[in-house]
Design a protein that fits this description.
This protein has 26 helices and 4 strands. By secondary structure, it is an all-alpha fold. It is globular, with a radius of gyration of 28 Å. Keywords: Cell membrane, Hydrolase, Membrane, Metal-binding, Metalloprotease, Protease, Transmembrane, Transmembrane helix, Zinc.
């Protein structure tokens, strides 16, 4: 099963989850109605029969009970889901997490941030925000609505007591939850279960109010106490069954995430070692945060102490997980002593499996890479991600973590490659950018100009967490300046547009609502338009671009149509096309990506910029595309790239 199939399954599972919890709501309505009818029958001294509910209560009362309970659950769920609208950040902050992307406090935090950044670049996902929970337990979580608002949370115990390989295994496990579509399902579980729990909380408040209120009306107090007790029973009964659903869904996904982590890192020792240390550590994986139970199904290992029953266990037992990873395990749990963390320890230097300098490629191989690597990276991608980070100068990596300097980096990435055009754009920046940001532009200009082409997209990804810290007014000014910069030369450079879209999508998430369209003809037109844009991007000659366009249409199995003129490729139309294409069903996106790949590879030659452009478009389509094997070049080629401006 590949990334797109997992995404489709996640959509189906979300519908199944809503169906199961809707059934729970119906059962709650039935229980409440029967309880109310039994109470009425008892007050009249009559025997109770379920067949007499209508005559005992009246159908108007039955309807009122159903509407009332449904309204309470709906409002409670909407309220909680609105609280969770910030995505993973809301979960991390609810658990007391502290963001470290901008200012890690020590070497352990730097190492943890480094591991997450490597994983993100290796998998083609935006660099997530990383939070540290001040807890001695060894645990972690991934939370968010999608890959663009994902958060990785790590406890202090995990970053201080796990080796780099073990920490890498834990982070790979959490990234697999991002790829498999588990995060959105997890947040929906939190919201829906909270709606059912609200009924029990209302009962608790009513029952509590009868003991602290006035004692003048004992009959009224008794009535409120009875209603409160009844609501508590109903609410917590619903929560009981809801937690059963949550636990059953969560346990199987943990086995899948463990297997995906092994596939990602090509090693079972790291993640198995982390699980063993949890078993041998006095603090285990039990979190002390007040809201730990609410998010128990999101953690790497159980965040709560086990009760006498495993019915509500959100994770399989540690021995069962370890034995799946190491069948010959002897059952011994080692002690989890503090591990000395050095920034960048055990790094892999250089390209993994560097290929000859020839850029000739095979389209079948490229298509297979798209099928097998999107949302499914391997150790070779991790090694390449490590090298790409190493190829970014230290000055740029430091600046990317600062909200002020990160703006300067993005301005420079969007500047034209032609020297004369670049000078005009920098003159424009001097007028429109913040003076301090422009000073950063001048200081970092040479570093960005000589950056290898394959490192530009990773550098942009490093900037996104810092840019999310901008105040809304600052971000709007920054965004307007970017648009002015794009339009300054009165022509569309597709690479510059793709960088802009990756940035905006990474910060803002979903596209504007008015750009969305589910019509099949609109989606077909959007796909054709993106093909035309890539064809013109790779060829100045119309005939050559038309051949590339035809290759893409053939791969898409569409009839040949005239290639739009280069003058028709405008920024608004590109934005609209990418927004429509993003709404394609998951299983239809591979076909679009393969047709785009066929377009840029039709002549058998693939430039580094072309593959990075394909990756940028894939990112905008919510398809995390890692660096591909065809991007690997020799060290001599890399050295040549670093001596010439991009």
């Amino acid at each position: 099963m590949n990334f797109f199939e997992y995404q489709e399954r996640a959509r189906r599972n979300s519908g199944m989850l809503v169906g199961l919890l809707s059934l729970a709501v119906v059962l709650l309505i039935g229980i409440t109605t029967m309880a109310a009818a039994a109470l009425v029958a008892y007050s009249r001294g009559e025997p109770f029969s379920p067949m007499q509910i209508g005559s005992l209560l009246g159908w108007d009362s039955v309807a009122a009970i159903a509407v009332g309970i449904s309204a309470v659950i709906l409002l409670g769920s909407v309220y909680k889901l609105r609280q969770m609208s910030a995505g993973g950040r809301a979960v991390a902050e609810a658990l007391g997490g502290r963001k470290i992307n901008i200012s890690p406090h020590n070497d352990a935090e730097k190492r943890a941030l480094n591991v997450v950044e490597e994983m993100a670049i290796a998998s083609g996902t935006p660099v997530p925000e990383v939070y540290v929970l001040d807890d001695d337990a060894i645990n972690a979580f991934a939370a968010g609505h999608d890959i663009h608002d994902a958060v990785i949370g790590l406890t202090r115990g995990s970053i201080e007591r796990l080796s780099r390989d073990e920490l890498q295994g834990v982070v790979a496990h959490e990234f697999s939850h991002i790829f498999n579509g588990d995060m959105r399902l997890n947040l929906r579980l939190v919201g829906l279960l909270h709606g059912i729990l609200v009924i029990g909380l209302l009962g608790y408040w009513l029952l509590r109010g009868t003991y602290i209120g006035s004692s003048r009306d004992n009959r009224g107090r008794a009535a409120f106490a009875g209603i409160g007790a009844g609501l508590m029973v109903i609410g917590y009964t619903g929560t009981f069954f809801g937690n059963l659903v949550k636990s059953a869904v969560s346990r199987q996904r943990e086995f899948l995430a463990d297997a995906s982590a092994v596939q990602f890192t090509r090693s079972n020792a790291g993640i198995a070692g982390a699980l063993k240390k949890i078993g041998g550590y006095s603090e285990g994986s039990n979190l002390s945060a007040g809201q730990a139970a609410e998010f128990s199904h999101m953690y790497f290992a159980s965040g709560l102490r086990r009760s006498f029953t495993n019915l509500f266990a959100t994770h399989p037992p540690l021995p069962a997980r370890i034995l799946r990873l190491e069948p010959n395990w002897n059952g011994h749990f080692p002690q989890a002593a503090a591990t000395k963390a050095a920034f960048g320890d055990a790094r892999v230097a250089g390209f993994a499996g560097a290929s000859p300098s020839s850029t000739a490629i095979n389209l079948d191989g490229l298509s297979a890479s798209l099928d097998n690597s999107i949302g499914n990276p391997g150790q070779d991608h991790i090694e390449l991600g490590q090298h790409l980070l190493d190829s970014i100068p230290t000055e740029l990596r430091s600046a990317a973590h600062d909200p002020f300097a990160a703006r300067a980096i993005v301005y420079l990435l969007l500047c034209h490659r032609d020297a004369a055009e670049r000078e005009q754009q920098q003159a424009l920046l001097e007028k429109i950018a913040h003076p301090g940001v422009f000073r950063e532009v001048q200081k970092l200009s040479s570093h960005v100009r000589f950056l290898p082409a394959c490192a530009r997209l990773p550098l942009l990804d490093l900037c996104i967490p810092a840019l999310r810290e901008l105040a809304p007014q600052q971000y709007q000014v920054f965004k307007r300046n970017l648009i002015k910069l794009l339009r300054s030369d009165r022509q569309v450079d597709l690479w510059e547009w793709a960088l802009y879209r990756v940035l905006v999508h990474g910060i803002e998430g979903t596209p504007d609502g008015h750009r969305m369209s589910q019509r099949r003809d609109a989606q077909r037109d959007a796909a054709r338009f993106l093909l035309a844009a890539l064809a013109h991007a790779g060829h100045r000659d119309y005939l050559a671009a038309n051949r590339a366009y035809g290759a893409g249409l053939e791969a898409m199995q569409r009839d040949k149509t005239p290639l739009p003129l280069a003058s028709d490729i405008t920024l608004p139309r590109l934005d609209k096309a990418i927004a429509i294409a993003r709404a394609l069903p998951p299983l239809e996106k591979p076909g679009l990506l393969k047709s785009l790949a066929a377009c840029i590879a039709h002549d058998g030659i693939l430039e580094a910029e072309e593959i990075e452009l394909l990756r940028a478009v894939a990112d905008s389509l919510d398809c995390p595309m890692p660096p591909l094997a065809v991007e690997l070049v020799s060290k001599e080629t890399l050295q040549k790239d670093t001596k010439a401006p991009v």
